[in-house]
Structure formats: C-alpha cells, structure tokens
C-alpha cells in the first residue's frame, strides 16, 4: 500500500567500480530480473548490476530490501525468493518462503515479513527469518476486512498495517496484532481521495504514499486519515513523467522514487513534491533494460 535480467553487470565489471556500501542503491523489480542502479543514476544509463536467469527463479512483482537481503515476490510460483544484497547474474536465492500469489512483500523494523496476497484477498505476516512452508503469525482475511485484491502492504514502527486495495480503490489500516476476520481501524475511500487502481504503498513517519496506477499519480495522505478525504499532496500532470506508476519508495531524505510500468521508466521527485512537477531524475531508455518495472526499493 514496495517490481530484471543480467546482474554482474550490464557494465563491464573490469571498468565499472562497485557501488560503495554507504551509497543508496535503487532496486527494481523488472519482470524476470532485479536491476540495481546507483541512486545518482540519471538518463539512459545501464544498471550497475542485475539478478536474473533460470537459477534465480525470478518472476518478480515486488521487492523489499532489508538487512542485507533482497526479498522478491514471485506471483506465478507462489514464492518469496531471498537473495544476498550483493547477488548478481544468475544467482540462486539463499532462501525461499512459500506465500500464495504474493503481490507485494514488506519488512518492518522488527524483521517481520508482510505479504499482500491479491488473489485470495489476504494479508499474511511471517516471523523474522521465516522460510520454507512456515506458518504465518498473523493472517487477515474475511468479509469484515475490506480487502479487495490487495496489491500493496506496509507496516509502521508500531506494527499497524497499511494496505492498498486495487479492486475497490481504497486504503485499509489494521491495528497492531490484527488477525483473522477483523475490520480495519481506518478506511480511506471515495471519490475525493483520488484513489483509482492503487498499486503500491510506502510510509514515512507521518504520511502514506500511494502509487496510484489508474490515476497516473502519486497521492500523499496523513497517516491518521480516515473516510472520504482529499490527499494532502498529489504528484500529477503532464510534466511529471508518470505513466502507470506501479511502485513507490522513499529514502531517508524524503526523496520519492517511482517505477512506471506502462512507461518503463523510473521517475524521482524531491521531498514534498506536489502538483504537476518535473522529476529531478528520469531513468529511461534502452540501456536501462527497464521493461514494465513493477516495484522499487531503496537501500545501501
């Protein structure tokens, strides 16, 4: 409510230095690969690294990067595959986790793993380090939940779970520890919200960011918003470069990174951006190897 082909380098490794570990990287779920760019990348640039190939098993719809691991959702194989953050080329995952039709994966500050299971209208939560056929520690499902093809989920530091629902154009929020057929504590929906086939979600300390696929926009709501409310900010318009926004992520400075599935591009906006604003960075073109990118993550 966070989307890869050739890793070890689309640049020649003998001439392209590795990205320093202190510098953020842009990780992109790019269909059958994960592509990695330096956060300073701009224009028609080749990725600095990529993971993809038969050993990787990647059929990505989403990803999350946490504590030196890349978590990748593979919708068709019902798996989350887990890679070392420096994996490249046709690397095999270091671990896997079974999850039915996972649309997005997110990791909270305690290391718990959240999946939005779109085809069964469910949010599942796994313990830190879960692997294989592990049982979830929480599972939100049922007619009281308001879930309707959830495609994005995120959790804040208090353990509240924020979900975007693609089919009914809504955001549902669940209390810490929610389990079973529980009603949301907040529901953001209605025409004033501007939500139209929302795809992914990201959180800051005080705000909810939504990749609003059907509206070609990034919408920003207060975390305590409820009801039919207007967004506090909306990045929308012809100058934004948005074209089927499918993923959204923030860095520690509040910079906003967006994958655009229809436009096969990454657009980047300054903190607090609003309206018909031009991106400060645009990554697009044949050299990028971007092809219907579905999600984005930011991490060292």
Strand content: 35-45%
CATH class, named: Mainly Beta
CATH topology assignment:
Neuraminidase
The spatial strand order of the largest sheet comes to 3-2-1-24
Features:
Neuraminidase, disordered N terminus, 300 residues, globular, four-stranded antiparallel sheet, mainly beta
Walk me through the structure.
- This protein is an all-beta fold and 300 residues long.
- The protein has a single domain (25-299), classed as 6 Propeller (Neuraminidase), CATH 2.120.10.30.
- Helices cover 0% and strands 41% of the residues.
- It has no helices and 24 strands.
- The protein has strands at residues 25-29, 33-38, 49-52, 60-66, 69-74, 79-84, 95-98, 102-107, 113-117, 122-126, 138-141, 150-155, 161-165, 170-174, 186-188, 198-203, 207-212, 217-222, 233-236, 245-250, 256-260, 265-269, 281-284, 295-299.
- The strands form 6 sheets. Strands 3-2-1-24 form a 4-stranded antiparallel sheet, with no helix packed on it. A 4-stranded antiparallel sheet has the order 4-5-6-7, with no helix packed on it. The chain has a 4-stranded antiparallel sheet with strand order 8-9-10-11, with no helix packed on it.
- Strand 21 and strand 22 (265-269) form a beta hairpin.
- The chain is globular and about 45 Å long.
- The two termini are 23 Å apart.
